[in-house]
């Protein structure tokens, strides 16, 4: 097994570090934020991710996982250094690589022998080469001995879904390793030995290919969701049921049934950012990806479409003025407190712009929702429970399909609402069940 340093204890870094320790490696997680490291050392987990606390605790207890702010010591103690720092969008929409660059240079300044440096952050194609160049420049400044240490850069993209990141890391559909030298490939096999011997598909490529696999995979999934969203919109017009369409399509092994659930548009930290980045890489290289460009636009339209669906269902133009709408779920998907690019933001802002007041709830995302919805705060009340948010509301909107919203007591819902009007933006309910209770029911594409 390998000795590993993971730079960055954000979402990807912490999940990766903890799970790599669980595979039997010795891992030290590094962050330059002392408060974060203090929290982790005290057993606290700064993010909401089911199962993560257990993995962290058992590996800290076994001595395989530790935390530090001392990057130089962590680098010297490790054969493999993962870069898992943020790559926030820069003003022009491209990924800002300043944190990646800072860490790459820091590794080169600290290293005392051969290292494999692994890009885990999602970075534009070509970043692996840049990391190599930054490190070479830094090593060059240290003189002949340091220049002779040698290092390899590896691209090892992650495919973790929030809410099931631990499971996804432990049982991935594939491991992708973009590397140039046999030495680096051999070390990466040590890192992932427990998956490798379990015959998890293990794909070795060059660095650019690995970087591209990540963008192509996420963009394809975004295209798939957007495709079914548009089919759903058409189904509404022609009297078809998109759920049956998706089910029948999915039985074709070439298509597959996953990611064919229509809804209010995709959100989250990955799909919006990665589709934007991939579209940009295409444009920059004179090979525009028209399908990805169209997907980005169609996803924006889908969110706005939900606003108009609700307005139309409430009586058409002007009907939202002074009305109260209960919104169940704010996070971009269930089992996360993450509000990044959540469709709820655009949709709530749209409803408020048309004069509505919102009573919203979410099991985990309210704290983040409060500041993300700052611009409309006078029109949004946050409620402690789903039933509280329905009190005297003129319509109910199911925005995010948390489990506790899947089995609502519809009789109780009806007594709480002013009007029995239900917009199910995630197609969780059966039309017959809701209509038989006397509701007017609107879903997406059925
Ligand atoms: C995604 C990828 O799945 C993961 O592999 C990658 O590494 C990071 O991005 P995540 O953003 O955590 O993971 O969430 P995911 O479960 O993929 O959902 C993304 C968005 O698509 C959510 O807003 C979800 O509601 C939406 N979605 C998903 C649909 O609208 N319909 C679907 O059928 C599937």
Automatic annotation (TrEMBL):
<dbReference type="GO" id="GO:0003979">
    <property type="term" value="F:UDP-glucose 6-dehydrogenase activity"/>
</dbReference>
<dbReference type="InterPro" id="IPR008927">
    <property type="entry name" value="6-PGluconate_DH-like_C_sf"/>
</dbReference>
<feature type="binding site">
    <location>
        <position position="214"/>
    </location>
    <ligand>
        <name>substrate</name>
    </ligand>
</feature>
<dbReference type="GO" id="GO:0000271">
    <property type="term" value="P:polysaccharide biosynthetic process"/>
</dbReference>
<feature type="binding site">
    <location>
        <position position="31"/>
    </location>
    <ligand>
        <name>NAD(+)</name>
    </ligand>
</feature>
<feature type="binding site">
    <location>
        <position position="273"/>
    </location>
    <ligand>
        <name>NAD(+)</name>
    </ligand>
</feature>
<dbReference type="InterPro" id="IPR001732">
    <property type="entry name" value="UDP-Glc/GDP-Man_DH_N"/>
</dbReference>
<dbReference type="GO" id="GO:0051287">
    <property type="term" value="F:NAD binding"/>
</dbReference>
<dbReference type="InterPro" id="IPR014027">
    <property type="entry name" value="UDP-Glc/GDP-Man_DH_C"/>
</dbReference>
<feature type="binding site">
    <location>
        <position position="162"/>
    </location>
    <ligand>
        <name>NAD(+)</name>
    </ligand>
</feature>
<dbReference type="InterPro" id="IPR017476">
    <property type="entry name" value="UDP-Glc/GDP-Man"/>
</dbReference>
<feature type="binding site">
    <location>
        <begin position="259"/>
        <end position="263"/>
    </location>
    <ligand>
        <name>substrate</name>
    </ligand>
</feature>
<feature type="binding site">
    <location>
        <position position="340"/>
    </location>
    <ligand>
        <name>NAD(+)</name>
    </ligand>
</feature>
<dbReference type="Pfam" id="PF03720">
    <property type="entry name" value="UDPG_MGDP_dh_C"/>
</dbReference>
<feature type="binding site">
    <location>
        <position position="267"/>
    </location>
    <ligand>
        <name>substrate</name>
    </ligand>
</feature>
<keyword id="KW-0520">NAD</keyword>
<keyword id="KW-0560">Oxidoreductase</keyword>
<protein>
    <recommendedName>
        <fullName>UDP-glucose 6-dehydrogenase</fullName>
        <ecNumber>1.1.1.22</ecNumber>
    </recommendedName>
</protein>
<comment type="pathway">
    <text>Nucleotide-sugar biosynthesis; UDP-alpha-D-glucuronate biosynthesis; UDP-alpha-D-glucuronate from UDP-alpha-D-glucose: step 1/1.</text>
</comment>
<dbReference type="Pfam" id="PF00984">
    <property type="entry name" value="UDPG_MGDP_dh"/>
</dbReference>
<feature type="binding site">
    <location>
        <position position="87"/>
    </location>
    <ligand>
        <name>NAD(+)</name>
    </ligand>
</feature>
<dbReference type="InterPro" id="IPR014026">
    <property type="entry name" value="UDP-Glc/GDP-Man_DH_dimer"/>
</dbReference>
<feature type="binding site">
    <location>
        <position position="36"/>
    </location>
    <ligand>
        <name>NAD(+)</name>
    </ligand>
</feature>
<feature type="binding site">
    <location>
        <begin position="159"/>
        <end position="162"/>
    </location>
    <ligand>
        <name>substrate</name>
    </ligand>
</feature>
<dbReference type="Pfam" id="PF03721">
    <property type="entry name" value="UDPG_MGDP_dh_N"/>
</dbReference>
<feature type="binding site">
    <location>
        <position position="122"/>
    </location>
    <ligand>
        <name>NAD(+)</name>
    </ligand>
</feature>
<feature type="domain" description="UDP-glucose/GDP-mannose dehydrogenase C-terminal">
    <location>
        <begin position="326"/>
        <end position="431"/>
    </location>
</feature>
<feature type="binding site">
    <location>
        <position position="333"/>
    </location>
    <ligand>
        <name>substrate</name>
    </ligand>
</feature>
<feature type="active site" description="Nucleophile">
    <location>
        <position position="270"/>
    </location>
</feature>
<comment type="similarity">
    <text>Belongs to the UDP-glucose/GDP-mannose dehydrogenase family.</text>
</comment>
<dbReference type="InterPro" id="IPR028357">
    <property type="entry name" value="UDPglc_DH_bac"/>
</dbReference>
<dbReference type="InterPro" id="IPR036220">
    <property type="entry name" value="UDP-Glc/GDP-Man_DH_C_sf"/>
</dbReference>
<dbReference type="InterPro" id="IPR036291">
    <property type="entry name" value="NAD(P)-bd_dom_sf"/>
</dbReference>
């Amino acid at each position: 097994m390998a000795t590993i340093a993971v730079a960055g204890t954000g979402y990807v870094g912490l999940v990766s570090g903890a799970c790599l320790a669980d595979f039997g490696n010795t891992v030290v997680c590094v962050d330059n934020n002392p408060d974060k490291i203090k929290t982790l050392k005290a057993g606290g987990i700064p993010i909401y991710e089911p199962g993560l606390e257990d993995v962290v605790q058992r590996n800290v207890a076994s001595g395989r996982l530790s935390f530090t702010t001392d990057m130089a010591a962590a680098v010297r103690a490790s054969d493999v250094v993962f870069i898992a720092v943020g790559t926030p969008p820069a003003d022009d929409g491209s990924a800002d690589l300043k944190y990646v660059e800072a860490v790459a240079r820091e590794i080169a300044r600290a290293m005392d022998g051969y290292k494999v440096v692994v890009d885990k952050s999602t970075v534009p194609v070509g970043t692996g080469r840049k990391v190599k160049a930054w490190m070479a420049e830094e090593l060059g400044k240290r003189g002949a001995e340091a220049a002779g240490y040698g290092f390899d850069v590896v691209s090892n993209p992650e495919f973790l879904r929030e809410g099931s990141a631990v499971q996804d890391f432990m049982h991935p559909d594939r491991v992708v390793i973009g590397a140039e030298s046999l030495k680096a490939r051999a070390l990466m096999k040590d890192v992932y030995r427990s998956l490798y011997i379990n015959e998890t598909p293990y794909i070795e490529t060059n660095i650019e290919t690995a970087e591209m696999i990540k963008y192509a995979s996420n963009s394809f999934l975004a295209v798939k969701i957007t495709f079914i969203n548009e089919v759903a919109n058409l189904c509404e017009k022609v009297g078809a049921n998109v759920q049956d369409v998706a089910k029948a399509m999915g039985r074709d092994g070439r298509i597959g049934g996953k990611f064919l659930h229509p809804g209010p548009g995709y959100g989250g930290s990955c799909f919006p950012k990665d589709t934007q980045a991939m579209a940009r890489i295409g444009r920059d290289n004179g090979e525009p990806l028209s399908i990805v460009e169209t997907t980005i636009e169609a996803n924006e339209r889908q969110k706005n479409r939900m606003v108009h669906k609700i307005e139309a269902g409430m009586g058409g133009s002007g009907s939202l003025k002074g009305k109260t709408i209960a919104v169940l779920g704010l996070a971009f998907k269930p089992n996360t407190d993450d509000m990044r690019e959540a469709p709820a933001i655009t949709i709530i802002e749209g409803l408020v712009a048309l004069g509505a007041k919102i009573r919203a709830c979410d099991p985990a995302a309210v704290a983040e929702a409060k500041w993300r919805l700052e611009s409309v705060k006078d029109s949004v009340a946050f409620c402690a429970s789903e039933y509280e948010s329905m009190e005297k509301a003129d319509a109910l909107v199911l925005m995010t399909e948390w489990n506790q919203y899947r089995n609502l007591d519809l009789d109780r819902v009806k007594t709480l609402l002013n009007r029995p009007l239900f917009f199910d933006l995630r197609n969780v309910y059966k039309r017959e069940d809701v209509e038989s209770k006397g509701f007017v029911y609107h879903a997406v594409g059925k």
